[in-house]
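Q: My labmate handed me this sequence with no annotations at all. I'd like to see what the chain might look like in three dimensions before we decide whether it's worth expressing. Could you predict it?
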Amino acid sequence: MSKLAWLTDIHLDFLNLAEIQAFAEEALESEPDAFLVGGDISIAPLLRTHLLLLDHYWQRPLYFVLGNHDYYRGSVDAIRRELPAFLQQHPNLKWLPSEGVVALSPATALIGHGLWADGRLGLAEKSAIRLSDYVLIEELKDKAQKELYQTLNELGDRAALEFEPILRAAAKKYEHIYALTHIAPFTEASWHKHQISDSQFLPHFSCHAVGEMIRRVMSDHPATLLTILCGHTHSEGEVWITDNIFVKTGKARYGSPQVQEILHIEVE
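A: Here is what I predict for the chain of 268 residues:
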């Protein structure tokens, strides 16, 4: 039996060093074999430092995706371009999707991608919501509404193109796939305070392009179960999208990171 600790939206930039150490030690109490961290680890200037701290305290594989906050005060393209060289020096730090399909057992695999809220659901471009993303991320700031939503669409489409071959490869080989994401790929998984997010927030909380891709791929593999572990909205919920797509959305609170769940994987 292998044990994986799933966490999301830990926002270490809200903690001081002593608080990060206390959190890391508490997360070790269940003695997991590896950690899954579903994005919003930190902000761009502190991301590497906080990854190194977790690596120092945990000393075991840490599979992670990036969330929108991880690009705050930075650039999406720059971080994605520069991160691989940094990770080569730290073998326990494993960024999804660059790890591809990770075998957890002969029947079970892990894949992942941070995705992006692509602005297509709910009121879409008519939403009056302006997230901090649209001020603090280089590719999104200083854009008029139409140009902003074009960029969000492109980021969602890019995520779908990057994630699809990995999902297809896993679905061909494994009975059960865990997919670690930050953004929920479906409206039904975009929980906020025990309800689905309203039409103003949905454009900013879900990735429609990836959701449609997942439906297509999994319809070709009805005997394969896909369990998606996402976050972003800071509210928990569970939903079956189809007979073989199940989504768990993790809860979070700034300044109080926690383990969402311990996953038990049969390895024989």
